[in-house]
Specification:
heterodimer; A: mainly beta; six-stranded mixed sheet; five-stranded antiparallel sheet; globular; B: mainly beta; four-stranded antiparallel sheet; 47% strand
């Protein structure tokens, strides 16, 4: 069936470190979004990236649709980056299918 | 520009009681979604509206859940009667055009429901 898998499930880093989060998906996509869910539960849009590469400050993302994966890069981590990062994919069925998330903890 | 607005933010009720959640989407967004997020999991779609029409309600438990989007703007999601297993976060999202599958979705802060 349709699947969205994220890795790693948990990541603990020192402030200032860099990280790479991965999202694998099982079929071709119409839409792929990366979200950060902060400790208060708000889903914050990071990237809308069905293909290609985008950058926004310390964050960047790359989606290789033909190989069915996307990567989220976080550089120079800050404590405010802590939270759960979700990849969500639309497979043409008009809804977002979310991955299981990566829980990121940044230690001061 | 204001984001998606939801109320209440928190709700605690006893089982078998009714409860309702309200959502106001981003201005001009035709498509509105209700998602359910259980603890430790990603959100899952309950229902999708295109203007005032519910075009995908296949995941909505219709025996106790209902939703409406009168006039194609605000939406209300209702549970009657609530069960213990309904404790979760209910998220509303909107996107800017019809057939919103490929459009970017924006989420509200959610309503955290606790059923005792």
């Amino acid at each position: 069936g349709i699947q969205v898998e994220q890795s790693p499930p948990d990541l603990i880093l020192q402030e200032g470190a860099n990280s790479t989060l991965r999202c694998n998906f099982s079929d071709s996509v119409n839409n792929l979004q990366w979200f950060h869910q902060n400790p208060w539960g708000q889903l914050i849009n990071l990237f809308y990236i069905p293909s290609g590469t985008k950058q926004n400050g310390r964050l960047s993302a790359t989606t290789v649709a033909t190989e069915r994966y996307s990567l989220l890069y976080i550089s120079s981590s800050q404590t405010t980056d802590s939270g759960v990062y979700f990849c969500a994919v639309n497979f043409g069925n008009e809804k977002l299918t979310f991955g299981t998330g990566t829980r990121l903890t940044i230690i001061p | 520009e204001a984001g998606v607005v939801q109320s209440p933010r928190y709700k605690i009720i006893e089982k078998k009681q009714p409860v309702a959640f309200w959502c106001n989407p981003i201005s001009g967004h035709n498509t509105l979604y209700w998602y359910l997020q259980n603890l430790g999991q990603g959100p899952e779609l309950l229902i999708r509206y295109e203007n005032e029409e519910a075009v995908d309600d296949s995941q909505l438990p219709k025996d106790r859940f209902s939703a409406e989007r009168l006039k194609g703007v605000d939406s209300t999601l209702k549970i009657q009667p609530a069960e213990l297993g309904d404790s979760a976060v209910y998220l509303c999202a909107s996107s800017p055009r019809l057939g919103g599958g490929a459009a970017e979705q924006f989420f509200g802060p959610g309503t955290r429901l606790t059923v005792l």
